[in-house]
Amino acid sequence: MFETLPNARRCALLIAASVAALGCAAPAFGQATGQAAASESRGGASKPRLSDAKPTSPNATINLVHLLVKQGVLTEEQAAGLIKQADDEAYIARQAAKNASTRAEEAAKAANAAAAATEPNGTRHVTYVPEVVKRQLREDIKREVMAKAEQENWASPGKYPEWAQRIRFYGDIRLRHEGDYFPSGNGPLQSYNAINTGSPFLEGNGTVPNPYFPPTYNTSQNRDRFRFRARLGMDADIYEGFTAGLRIATGESGSPVSTNQSLGASSNGGNFSKYSLWLDRAYLKYQAWDDGLVLSGGRFDNPFWSPTDLVWYKDLGFDGFAVQAKYRVADGFKPFAVAGAFPIYNTDLNAGLNTFDPSISAPIKLRSANKWLFGGQLGFGAKVADDANLRVAVAYYDFENVQGRLSSVCQVVGTADSCDTDMLRPSFAQKGNTYMGLRSFQVISTGWADYQYYGLASQFRPVVATGQVDLATFHPVHVVLDGEYIWNSAFNRSAVAAVAVNNFGSSPAAGAPAPYVGGSTGWLARLTVGYNEIKKLGDWNVHAGYKYLQSDATIDAFVDSDFGLGGTNLKGYFIGGNVGISDNVWASLRWMSANSIAGVPYAVDVVQVDLNARF
Fold this sequence. Notes:
This is Porin. By secondary structure, the protein is of the alpha+beta class. It has two domains: 2-165, no CATH class; 169-223 and 336-614, no CATH class. It has helices at residues 7-22, 30-41, 60-70, 76-118, 131-152, 162-165, 192-196, 493-499, and strands at 167-181, 189-190, 201-203, 216-217, 223-239, 242-249, 261-262, 278-288, 293-301, 317-326, 333-345, 354-357, 362-365, 371-385, 388-400, 409-410, 435-437, 440-441, 450-452, 454-456, 462-474, 477-488, 521-530, 540-549, 570-582, 585-596, 603-614. It has a 16-stranded antiparallel beta barrel. 25% of the residues are buried.
């Protein structure tokens, strides 16, 4: 009976059957077949006529997508993606149907040939493949085609291979104008970092005055600098919770607290010389329990919660190993914990320096002086109201082997000579910490000058309390109050004062020694109003705060490098704001006014105007 149907209706039925079997939307043919039937019922074909209606898509899904775009539910970009997906799936379905038909025909031919070989001549066969078998064949072949399409990526031309889809690139660029303005009355501020990272300083031995001036920081000449920062990173999803990350960044040096590059910097040679790139991040990470447990190793972001830069510079990278854990105990209450071990300084394998041992009349290698940071933090986040969140944490940090020690008696007659505690000097420092001389000299003759290195006079085991209140009453505008307090529990004032070479106050009487006035505490308070993150045009926030950080509350190498041009022993105000000028592009303005707390008079105002972009 099927053979006797008119060609038009026979094609329509074949199309409908194929589409129904594949689960795809069939072309709209009901109206056409209906018109044909009506013509036949009238006993003749009607004259063809033109229609004013807009042709519809042969796929109901695509028609629906166009309708949603017309009604404003979807954007053109989203619609294009959905249509492409529909086309891909239709293509795969057609391939599956084609392959299924081919295999069915081949199977039928093979069966007929086998049957014909065993039956008498003249026997005729009519091939019949049950519909259920056809459907099963189509489904099996569709799965095979889909798997091959995903593996070889021929169903979506231009799409990245599977391994490339697990890699995400990101980056940012910042252009900055910075003005550093010094008032009159600043004293010369000695740079112990310049001495410890270069040649030892030739100082007097008490018999004669020091004939040389130590290297100092600029504290009197106003400066304007144009700077930029560029960073490019990659995160890769490896397998079952394992990820890896790399990031490169600009920077004038290997400083842990700055990736800024000054345009035309003399340290780089000027004259449009090229700039250096540094490996800023390199880590492996394992995440489990919906990120409730995170294990990190390598060089990674600060694992401790630290919303301010009182203790840690915001972009500081940590070398070592860390574990982070959090768990929602109840609705709106989530405790968290962090612990880690981080090598600060690892002595060269061959120790680099030699010293003479008179007991064996031969040179020996100096003892290694590895330095470590061990830290732990406990805290919780709580939703105290529908529009208010609270977060509180307490941390303890133990810096091992960072304090300087006086060497055994050593003879130094030139810059190449060494003593057995030289490697305890900081390999990087900003300014503010209290220092002591490391070398105990053998007196050769009266008036002899000695080459000296300097180490930290105090031990450091700071305890840090941190809190933040976020009020979202006027969401998306938030009101955020941050606070942080630090106390160096290992600070011993009398022991530090006995060896200190800086951070003295003024003498109470003529001829009397100046008292040591360094300290071990610090705090910061900041109020921020506006959007929590600047993402789009018109997003904004403003902030204002006050910082007070005594000389030996923490190691000055790791704190903010902008306030007071970096370091501890500083106090003062800061204000600033950000405004979005496009998607992922924003402008920033900051003003920071800092003064020294102890020691040499020092003050500076720093103004920064930034243009930021991320991608």
